[in-house]
Amino acid sequence: MPDPLVPAEELSFSYSRSSGPGGQHVNKVSSRVTLWFDLDASPSLTDEQKARLRQGLAGRLNRQGRLWLVARASRSQTMNRQAAVRRFYELISQALAEETPRRPTRVPRASRAARLTAKRHRARIKREGRGKIATDE
Predict the structure, then answer these.
(1) In sequence order, what E strands does 30-128 have?
(2) What is the tally of structural domains in the chain?
(3) So what's the pLDDT on residue 117?
(4) What is the pTM of this model?
(5) pLDDT at 2
(6) What does residue 93 show for φ and ψ, rounded to 5 degrees?
(7) How far apart are CA 111 and CA 51, in angstroms?
């Protein structure tokens, strides 16, 4: 499935003051960025893609079906916005990636034989150790 191209017009942002150290800068600047994406209202995604995203990103969707991401690592609002957009596209591509089905394999004959040999050896050691103890009296 090709990676969907979600245009920037479908993304909305809200800004707020970030927590943590920074002194007066933290108290004045709204550098925390919250990215919002309305999954149900997106015209650029197919119904199948929306269903896959709903399943893969269930923990990140709110009750209205909107995806949100928060970025607050940087003191710069622009850098936080770029980080949020980058993470958004990574999340979308990971959720839409199809898993390759696992092909069941058999245990190789040599490793099976080695395991059984080791079991026989260990059983012999235990059996010999459980014999009668000779006393010299």
Answers:
(1) 32-38, 66-71
(2) 1
(3) 97
(4) 0.65
(5) 43
(6) -70, -35
(7) 43
